[in-house]
Amino acid sequence: MSEELHDHDRGLGFDLPVLHRRGMIRLLAGAGLVPLVGCSGDGAGSSGSSAPASDGSAASSAASAGSDADCAAVPGETAGPYPGDGSNGVNVLKESGVVRRDITSSFGSASGTAAGVPLTVTLTVVGAGAECGTPEEGAAVYLWHCDRDGNYSLYSEGVTGENYLRGVQEADARGRVTFTSVFPACYPGRWPHIHFEVYGSLADATAATAITATSQLALPEAVCGTVYATDGYERSVENLARLSLETDNVFSDGHDRQLAKVTGSVAEGYTATLTVAV
Q1: What local confidence, expressed as pLDDT, does residue 28 receive?
Q2: How far is residue 53's CA from residue 58's CA, in Å, rounded to a whole number?
Q3: 3-state helix vs strand vs coil in the chain, percent to 5
Q4: Which of 4, 51, 148, 166 is deepest in the core (most CB within 10 A)?
Q5: Torsion-angle region of 182 (φ positive above 0: left; ψ -120 to 50: alpha; else: beta)
Q6: Residue 59, by phi and psi: left (phi above 0), alpha (psi -120 to 50) or beta?
Q7: H/E stretch holding 15
Q8: What is the pLDDT of residues 49-96, one digit of tens each?
């Protein structure tokens, strides 16, 4: 991989053509003019940073971002030029098989499987203005991220024929969606992250229309360091050493509402959780 900043993370100015195709409401949300709201809280909704425990596992500490009733705005972030939602070329959302929990392998005519340390991602979608206490049952989340090598399926050289690490889930009665995946790489110029779009319904998601919110989930530094010390993530070690959440061009303006709570270990896999209000 080259050491230059990836196109899909150069920020809002670089992505204006893509955002224009998504419509003015997406542009305003990405600029922070239309508030997207998220919560910090306990359980699956907490965001925080993690540190390795004495047994090699990672135990999270909760972020001091306010009470459960504090539904502060979550920054709207660029989806980048590799979203796969039809706004920049290919549209995986209209393909049969995209609605799935396990996104580790490709579906349809593709057959590749992404290698890496297991990661389960659970997002809890709740309604804003109700102390983050009203689950958005029936909402849908499209989630995607890079693989262990920092490549995005459908777009990156060598994996254009794959569609792994992309999938849609419908929120249950608790507002939760869960994806089985692998821990993403840290590639040059960007803090380790996961993209997601929230839709009002599964029908909207699979039609790739009426996006409610677009943002990114950040992964805690200590857990990243532990994962990147394992086989296959060697390039991520040097890349992570050159970055911080405070200097990342997406998270530098604040990441309290996007920093996931992560628990687990390399041996047993990790679980990342975050609550997002819409």
Answers
A1: 34
A2: 5
A3: 15, 30, 55
A4: 166
A5: beta
A6: beta
A7: helix 12-22
A8: 333 333 333 333 333 333 444 676 567 999 988 999 999 999 999 999
Q: Interior CA angle at 237 toward 251 and 221, to 5°? A: 40
**221 φ/ψ angles, rounded to the nearest 5 degrees:** -60, -45
- CA-CA-CA-CA dihedral for 115, 217, 169, 9, to nearest 10: -70
pTM: 0.79
pLDDT score, position 174? 97
At 191 the pLDDT is 98
Q: Which two structure tokens, joined as six digits, stand for 274? A: 């975050």
The two tokens of residue 158 are 């060598």
Place of tokens 């204006």: 16
The C-alpha atoms of residue 19 and residue 148 are separated, in whole angstroms, by 27
Low-confidence ranges of the chain (pLDDT < 70): 1-70, 72-74, 130
Alpha-carbon separation of residue 171 from 2, 40, 175, 215 (angstroms): 38, 18, 5, 17
pLDDT at 72: 61
